[in-house]
Amino acid sequence: MTKMTYRDAARSALRDALRGDPRVFLMGEDVGRYGGAFAVSHGLLAEFGPERVRDTPLSENTFVGAGVGAALGGMRPIVEVMTVNFSLLCLDQIVNNAATLRHMSGGQLSVPLVVRMATGAGRQLAAQHSHSLEGWYAHIPGIKVVAPGTADDARALLLAALREPDPVFVFEHAALYPMEGEVDATGGPGEIGRALVRRAGTDLTLITYGGSLPKTLAAAERLAGEGIEAEVIDLRSLRPLDTATILASIARTHRALVVDEGWRTGSFAAEVSAQIMERAFYDLDGPVQRLCSAEVPMPYARHLEDAALPQPATIAAAARAMLGRDG
Amino acid sequence: MTKMTYRDAARSALRDALRGDPRVFLMGEDVGRYGGAFAVSHGLLAEFGPERVRDTPLSENTFVGAGVGAALGGMRPIVEVMTVNFSLLCLDQIVNNAATLRHMSGGQLSVPLVVRMATGAGRQLAAQHSHSLEGWYAHIPGIKVVAPGTADDARALLLAALREPDPVFVFEHAALYPMEGEVDATGGPGEIGRALVRRAGTDLTLITYGGSLPKTLAAAERLAGEGIEAEVIDLRSLRPLDTATILASIARTHRALVVDEGWRTGSFAAEVSAQIMERAFYDLDGPVQRLCSAEVPMPYARHLEDAALPQPATIAAAARAMLGRDG
Amino acid sequence: MTLPSRERGLDLLRQMTRIRRFEERAAELYTVGKIRGFLHLYIGEEAVAVGAMQALTPDDNVVATYREHGQALARGIPPGAVMAEMYGKANGCSRGHGGSMHLFDVSRRFHGGHAIVGGGLPVAVGLALADALQKRAAVTACFFGDGAVAEGAFAESLNLAALWRLPVLFVCENNLYAMGTALARHQAQTDIVRKAEAAGVPGQAVDGMDVLAVEAAARLATAAVRAGQGPRLLEARTYRFRAHSMYDPDLYRAKEEIERWKASDPIGHFVAALRAEGLLVDADLAALEHAVAAEVDAAVAEAEAGPWEPVEDLLKDVYTAAERR
Amino acid sequence: MTLPSRERGLDLLRQMTRIRRFEERAAELYTVGKIRGFLHLYIGEEAVAVGAMQALTPDDNVVATYREHGQALARGIPPGAVMAEMYGKANGCSRGHGGSMHLFDVSRRFHGGHAIVGGGLPVAVGLALADALQKRAAVTACFFGDGAVAEGAFAESLNLAALWRLPVLFVCENNLYAMGTALARHQAQTDIVRKAEAAGVPGQAVDGMDVLAVEAAARLATAAVRAGQGPRLLEARTYRFRAHSMYDPDLYRAKEEIERWKASDPIGHFVAALRAEGLLVDADLAALEHAVAAEVDAAVAEAEAGPWEPVEDLLKDVYTAAERR
Ligand SMILES: Cc1ncc(C[n+]2csc(CCOP(=O)(O)OP(=O)(O)O)c2C)c(N)n1
Ligand SMILES: Cc1ncc(C[n+]2csc(CCOP(=O)(O)OP(=O)(O)O)c2C)c(N)n1
Ligand SMILES: [Mg+2]
Ligand SMILES: [Mg+2]
Fold first, then answer.
1. Which of A7, A68, B167, C268 has its CA 20 to 30 A from that of A316?
2. Could you tell me the end-to-end alpha-carbon distance of chain D, in angstroms, rounded to an integer?
3. Phi-psi region of C73 (alpha: psi -120 to 50; beta: other; left: phi over 0)
4. C188 CA distance to ligand 3 middle (Å)
5. Torsions phi, psi of B260, nearest 5?
6. Is residue C322's pLDDT more than 70?
7. Option in C162, C188, C195 nearest D163 (CB)
8. b/e per residue, D252-262, with b = 16+ CB within 10 A?
């Protein structure tokens, strides 16, 4: 294991993929000369050249659609969309084509496309750069959705995405790029559809993913100092969802709090809650709760942004309240 | 009350709005000469002229964005997007502008925009014309979302939308257009954010909206024949959601099934289930269940489309199972 | 027009006639409920698909519209597979999943059947990119209507294809209407070739009612594309003789306008030309019509006889791997 | 260039200098963490906003980009309100909700601050539509970069504005780069005016480093727009002297290229011209710089002194009505 940032870990996966498979190429706005809006692809143009690291014009719908076409044509494109808010420009190609072509063609086509994008807030980028819409993607049959919350997963899940025959969307949390962690720098792909217990505990289960994982782990530490042992599940994959790991944990803890940076109403956290309702109702000692972002376009001012997002303190408070330990 | 189709009821609201307020105008693809893809705006061009009933080019992102701008400029635009699948081309303008401008400008702007679109399946239009994505819209702070399930509401909720100072999205279910119902043809706006009990019952609550409402009522009839009295709630408004009406019903019935034509994972039904979990857990005699569409791009073949959608028979079966009355 | 050999001439005529008769039958089958959903007929536009396809090889790709029966038949998808698809049968070319608007045949590199107007263009650019990166000499022909020109995807896709010099032949079927909206009511500047050139794609307009003119222009354009000169656009000026779809009462076009265009029917026109040159006699035409009628009958029989996909397979093929079945 | 009166000349110079010094201070404040998020400076492009705004009246609308401090100041938004916004303070022109990329001032019809590239164009078309429908004589000026030309929204919006003959002045700030991607690497055909004309919008390119040239071209274009001739496009050829944003190491531009452009600095250029005509002496310049420095200091002081919006108001103004608070 090597100490490495989330950003470098993602880059190591891109590099390995480009080295290992001539069908792989990377395209997106400023992935080449500029080195990537978040510097993830920095240096790759020099190593792999402009055929395989392709700067595109500002044309999200078209370059994502071109990724679909290139995948149909036998390539293994990795398309970078800078930020999830911009991906609203290409949802047509994603839902109506990428996710649909296989089934609609009667199973004739496969679309082995990987789309990476930055998601989430925490950098004061305001309301057109900060949302967390991966829950929407998790609604779409025909695609898979992963959201690494650790540096190691930034590598492992991207490698895994490249092995799939169908479209995979990789949501990298923008605030995690500088985060360091232990990475298996020569490791292979992770398993898509497998959640991990990041911290064992007995009193309640905290279920989260992506940018909320470090915050949730921090909250669990605080709670431990107060004698509350929280189990922390990192979903890693939103579609497919590893319900078995969730249910096994709840069978032990009997309580769950879902922490999700998306807006609350219609959040992915609602799906997790509903599935627990359906499949573990009789295991529960109390209702599953959600801690999500405030339902507001993300404000710029730091104190407002902080207040809009789940934070270790608010996560811990929600957990305490569930255990009747408030105040 | 007058007998009228859902289509004619929607048209009567458009006509009243155009007559009553010179700031109102209608725009969209083929709303004028063609008379609307679903004939909702048939005859309005002749009555109101091309200034107020405006055919647009095929440019969803731009004409919805132009609706945003026209609303900022003091008009009351009604924009028709033919089908929810096409609205994927304009989600950028919807999320990043329509829903956001008010808050992002520090409260200086309002966007009194109404967007109507057809949603849903049942007409064998296959995977690029048949989805139910209104649950996504219900996730977006800054907008409101209504989904009429009766002819009367096709009129009343559209009129209500036009009274709002903020963007309202009206999802008309494509399969309901020819459905007849009693309509208060001179009635005023309905109330956005108010659910209605369409059928009283004591054994369980069926919660639904839009195109699934008639199917759910049909299921309730069947169940009644078997001695099961189902209460049927028509949500009417997905954002804001009338949780009070739901909770009051569950306090009586102690069981709920949510019927939603969206795909199951990440459906709006999940939100309803999660809210019941959070706010009525101790009222429940068993887990809330969801009946949604199969997670598949909608197939063309009739028998497959039928199988993919909630149907009176499957709704009734799910209800029976919840009451331990299967088979 | 310079006429081809009798054999080639008869072949082109047969292809156009096959589309015409197929579509006529489809319209009938729609009215009796055998075909459902949306149905968009190609009648009047046969010369475009038939002409353009002459310039393609089996290695080339085709990306089509929702008005694509003609494109599919001209590409060689068997009429029975198309008809069965419109019936929703499992022997349909998309196993009944797609219907009229979503015909697919990977063996013929026919990549659908796109019903999001303009949605096929980016996919075509990507197919061409894949060919370019893999040093395959194929061309991707992408069909779309005049209405699609208004969509942002048009300008974006042409720019990207030109920027990367990709082997795409953009074929605009300009039938002067997008549903009920005439070209001049959806485009401020109606010269589509000029738009293409402003995006960096050389273009050429051609009489889309003349199969030989379309063929010649398509051959010229694909030759440039194959020579590595980047994408080309062909604007075929044509007209649909029928309404937009079976739902459309067609209230927005003047009868006289329709009649005027019918006077340059691509089939009638071509028959007359062949006849004038002595390449076709009445007996040929009768034989041809007879053969086509038999083909269409056989297609219908195939569709009628086809099986329904089992409902149990509803979730099959949402994913390539089987794990979510 | 034909010089204006001394008074007008000094005014234009003061406006450009105000932007320059404001931006320099913003850059400093960013490095010390007073301003956060993304910060895109207008240094080098001052002549564009200042020149173009001269052609507008208070009744006109402006739709801006995320590189819009210059656009905002030239429109007359007080520097203190802009600076306070970048601090995230409640006395900011968007109450701290928007930050650098989202400046708004409805009293000046400044409709933002758009950070989705190309996202402002449709909104501008709609504002112009509202004016047209209400028979108001206003023009909507819509700023965007060369990068936005690649977005589908560009072609769509120009077409719609032209089709409906709406009063829009499209102002393309062509600074030759979209982030790190040079114009010729994102556009196959780099003549933006030609693209506009293909969409039906007459256009004109102008030296964006020459404030008088921009002003003259903008006046000509808005006169046509006001005369009901429909939209116009102005392509201002300019250059940003700084990196794309504060995050950008600016590795993709040659030093010499930057230096070459700096030699035609719009401010230095204009100072020299005024001086050559005897319209400006050293003392004028010193006084002007002094006044601008004081304005910028005052803006910073206003931002520093401003209050934070109370956290309790987080959900205020998501909706106009109060029912969901
Ligand atoms: C994105 C999108 N918007 C709207 C529609 C509805 N629609 C279907 S066909 C059509 C007209 C298209 O016209 P054109 O591209 O000229 O093709 P034609 O039907 O004339 O062959 C419209 C508006 C659609 N399918 N997709
Ligand atoms: C839709 C969208 N895609 C990508 C981005 C990221 N981005 C921000 S600015 C920019 C370059 C824009 O260039 P241009 O329009 O020329 O404006 P300039 O920065 O040169 O003023 C990019 C790619 C964005 N903000 N919006
Ligand atoms: Mg057409
Ligand atoms: Mg630029």
1. A7
2. 56
3. alpha
4. 15
5. -150, 125
6. no
7. C188
8. bbeeeebeebe
How many Å apart are CA B228 and CA D260, to the nearest integer? 83
Four-CA torsion A276, A279, A281, A285, nearest 10 degrees: -60
**How confident is the model over C48-74, as pLDDT tens digits?**
999 999 999 999 999 999 999 999 999
| Residue D323 clears pLDDT 50, i.e. is over it | no
Per the listing, tokens 């600074």 go with D175
pLDDT-derived band at C4, boundaries 50, 70, 90: confident
Residue closest via CA to ligand 2's atom 5 equals D117
- Model pLDDT, residue C325: 32
ipTM of this complex: 0.98
Using one digit for the tens of pLDDT, what is the confidence trace for C163-201? 999 999 999 999 999 999 999 999 999 999 999 999 999
Active site residue ranges of B: 60, 129
Q: Which amino acid is at B298?
A: M
**Which residue, D180, D227, D184, is CA-closest to D202?**
D227
3-class DSSP state for residue C172? strand
Residues in chain A with CB shorter than 8 Å from the CB of B298 are none
The values of phi and psi at residue A182, to 5°, are -80, 125
pTM (whole model) above 0.95 = yes
Q: C202 C-alpha vs ligand 3 centroid, how far in Å?
A: 21
Q: What 3-state class would DSSP assign to D306?
A: coil
CA dihedral B242, B246, B247, B253 (to 10 degrees): 170
Instruction: Give the single-character DSSP code of B85.
Output: G
For residue D89, the chain A residues in CB contact (below 8 A) are 301
Instruction: List chains adjacent to chain A, taking adjacency as at least 3 C-beta pairs closer than 8 Å.
Output: B, C, D
**Token duo for residue B148:** 């009429």
pLDDT in the model for residue B157: 98
The angle subtended at Cα D114 by Cα D229 and Cα D132, nearest 5°, is: 25
Sheet holding A256-263, edge to edge: A196-199, A230-234, A204-208, A256-263, A289-293
- Listed in order, strand segments (DSSP E) in chain C are 61-64, 110-113, 140-145, 168-174, 177-178, 181-182, 203-207, 232-237
User: Residues within 5 Å of ion ligand 3 by Cβ?
Assistant: C 145-146, 175, 177-178
Q: Which residues of B touch C179 (CB under 8 A)?
A: 29-30, 34, 37
Instruction: Tell me the angle at which helices D79-87 and D282-305 cross, rounded to the nearest 10 degrees.
Output: 40
